[in-house]
Specification:
The protein is an alpha/beta fold. About 25% of the residues lie in helices and about 20% in strands. The protein is built from twelve helices and 19 strands. The strands form five sheets. Strands 5-4-1-6-10-7-11 form a seven-stranded mixed sheet, with helices on both faces. Helix 11 links the parallel strand 18 and strand 19. The C terminus is likely disordered.
Amino acid sequence: MTAPRTVLAVIPARGGSKGVPGKNLAPVGGVPLVARAVRACRAARRVTHVAVSTDDPDIAAVATGAGAEVVHRPAALADDTATSEAALLHALDAHEARHGSPADVVLLVQCTSPFLTPGDVDGVAAEVLDGGADTALTVAPTHGFLWRHTLPAPHTAPDRTTPYTAPERTTPYTAPERTTPHTAPERTTPHTAPDRTTPHHTTPAPTTPRTAPGAGLHAEGVNHDKAHRPRRQDRRPEYLETGAAYAMDATGFRTHGHRFFGRTALVPTDPARVLEIDDPHDLARARALAPLLDPPATPTRADVDAVVLDFDGTQTDDRVLIDADGRELVAVHRGDGLGVAALRRAGLHLLILSTEKNPVVAARARKLHVPVLHGIDRKDAALKHWCEEYGIDPQRVLYAGNDVNDLPCLALVGWPVAVADAHAAVRAAARAVTATRGGAGAVREIAAWLLGPGLDDSSRPARTPVPPPFPAPSPQGK
């Protein structure tokens, strides 16, 4: 029986990035880009090994947490001039040294393509494994008309071999009759010569030629005759390289040293998912698209060791009543108390983390028998210290929040969660979003994610309506 062929997916992810600092660790949909790439590769059926090539210890830690092997890239292969091919060759050598045998097929997977799917990865691998291709790449079909600028053709003077003949005038020219004498306009004010102490032209001379972009250049069609515009259905599609995933026969890659050799196969992907992150605007677009393109995902008990909860806006509806003595009162949801009690019984580490130092927060924590840190300016630093103190991997922490001061904590943990009415930036950074608003049972919903249908209240609608006007609350609640 033939042994299965080894497919090594290599994800280059160096620490230095000029366009977007820390790009490979930037979260999209609540997950760092490098971790998104690792997960896509690990979920691909044809991939046997996943390795992240990096020079950055933080990237290495996230890659390890996501389940990848780490290839520590030397500085000579991690500067701005280093090529992806050089990182691949180094990773192939490291794989062979680590496992004692060479890879049969090597994949180059870019973590700057955040919406890469396991199907895309399997597609390029299968073309080399089964389809007889030497190389393969992901592409997006397009019917677009492409144009480019070209230099104008050399100017040719008109032919002067034939003498010019003026047109014959058939009738004599007669000047029009002036019916009234010409009178110069009356000057109502004396004429004053312009002051010549300053230059006559006050508009400064331009420092660059006043030339519109492309002026003097010609435009020509790249993939079409500009004089002929066929209908879309009459044109064969062309294919745009997505930059997301490439597959190569490993022996051929070592021989040729580049990613395209022999027969190359194209693996079409969904054009709606094609996005490469090269600048902050690309990153912002990816974060906006993530809720639309990422499959819905909620954690289970197997994914999480600790649950950390913001207070205001997450366990409350973010409103406050102040009595005549200045005491603050908030409303909480009894279902959240039931959920917290179930999480505690299940053995998860629990923590309430709040920026506000308020007796209400401490009272609620005592009622729930949950430790609390409040009056915290740097919530992310406090959370990191708490994880270190209890030996908890941040990638196995669920943090639930609602506002922008929760963003640093969301970026630190493996399961960032936003409540349904959270700030838009928080929802964009979250890996999962509750269907329930803060203070209306969102914590109970999270407990149901982790502990299963035993906490599921089928009578509760999928989305809790806006609560009625603020009730007469108590700082103590379930």
